[in-house]
Design brief:
Its EC number is 7.6.2.9. The structure is a single chain. The protein is of the alpha/beta class and 342 residues long. The protein is 38% helix and 23% strand. The chain is built from 14 helices and 13 strands. The strands form 3 sheets. A 6-stranded mixed β-sheet has the order 6-7-8-3-9-10, with helices on both faces. It has a 4-stranded antiparallel β-sheet with strand order 2-1-4-5, with helices on both faces. A 3-stranded mixed β-sheet has the order 11-12-13. Helix 6 crosses helix 7. The protein starts with a strand and ends in a 6-residue tail after the last helix.
Length: 342
């Protein structure tokens, strides 16, 4: 069953320059590049539409200047869109008052940015508890909740440390704990790992996936790194020049790119990195000995060592843990070397 839409964005524009709303109306909501240039108007987001479903990791990916961060700021109304419609849990986000928006961001939305923005004079515990402090939650309750989040992100024992005493990865973990302490329905992450060293970045991606498996949040994640996008995403929106070029699963993007730009991005991505076991398995489940069970949502590349080392095939399971097929080493190796899975 398809999950419900929690955030629905339709025809969103963000223009910078003189009289932008009048300009859009004059051009029937579809100005040309020449018209924009002649009016001295910069288009940061152009006619963007996305539907983000409950519990999914939705990645917005693009190079610097593609509009991805501006779009996310429009989705949370940190930036006012020039035109378009945004609905959060069915409510018109653009019709909300400033007080309603403040309440929404405090109670329903969590945000993590590239720069950790921890308060240097506060301890790890105090930083993590800060959103609840702002809400007026009593000290005992907010610190108890903050300790839970600190434990979840793996920083137990460092509650009394200050940011300067932590590594970059640890500081970002504090930022993650802080963003989750109010139990948001929607979690925005704007290039949260891009300032970290490659090894720490990979570690934080693993940590992010572990947290999501526990918490099942609805996540909007921004990155310029396609490898990071395909590793984390349920679906990806690829942006270029303020426009969304294609929205699809990582598998669909690599196998069926809809524009030359997306095709160029995905040209050198090994298929095994994105192909899920459910796509290459055999639907037959004969009686016999099996090495174990693997989720059909895992990729061939992620499981190849486990499959290849086993002397028997694996059962493949679906969303509810039900057995939906089988996979053996020969099939997985064929995908790895490109002999199948076209």
């Amino acid at each position: 069953m398809e999950r419900p839409v929690i955030l629905d964005c339709r025809g969103v524009w963000k223009l910078y320059g003189p009289h932008t709303r009048n300009f859009l109306e004059k051009h029937n909501g579809s100005p040309t590049d020449m018209a924009l240039a002649e009016a001295n108007i910069i288009s940061a987001v152009r006619d963007a539409s996305v539907k983000i479903r409950k519990g999914e990791i939705f990645v917005i990916m693009g190079l610097s200047g593609s509009g991805k961060s501006t779009l996310v700021r429009c989705l949370s109304r940190l930036v006012e869109p020039t035109a378009g419609e945004i609905r959060f849990e069915g409510s018109d986000l653009l019709a909300m008052s400033e007080n309603e928006l403040i309440h929404l961001r405090r109670k329903k939305m969590g945000m993590v940015f590239q720069h950790f923005a921890l308060l240097p004079h506060l301890t790890v515990l105090q930083n993590a508890a800060f959103p609840l402090d702002v809400q007026g939650v009593d000290r005992r309750t907010r610190e108890e909740k903050a300790r839970q989040m600190i434990d979840i992100v793996g920083l137990t024992g460092r509650e009394d440390y200050y940011p300067r005493q932590l590594s970059g990865g640890q500081q970002q973990r504090v930022g993650i704990a802080r963003s989750l302490v109010a139990d948001p329905d929607l979690w925005f992450l704007d290039e949260p790992f891009s300032a970290l060293d490659p090894l720490i970045r990979r570690e934080m991606q693993d940590e992010f996936l572990r947290l999501q498996s526990m918490l099942q949040k609805t996540i909007v994640f921004i990155t310029h790194d396609f490898d990071e996008a395909i590793r984390l995403a349920d679906r990806i929106a690829v942006m270029k020049g303020g426009r969304i070029e294609q929205t699809a699963t990582p598998e669909e993007l690599v196998l069926n790119p809809s524009t030359p730009y997306v095709e160029e991005f995905t040209r050198h991505v090994p298929r095994a990195k994105v192909m899920k076991l459910r796509s290459v398995m055999s639907p037959d489940v004969p009686d016999g000995v099996y090495a174990g069970e693997l989720s059909g949502n895992r990729t061939v590349a992620d499981t190849i060592h486990q499959i290849d080392a086993a002397t028997h095939p694996f059962k493949v399971t679906g969303e509810e843990g039900e057995v939906i097929g089988t996979i053996d080493a020969r099939t997985a190796i064929d995908v790895m070397i490109g002999r199948t899975g076209a």
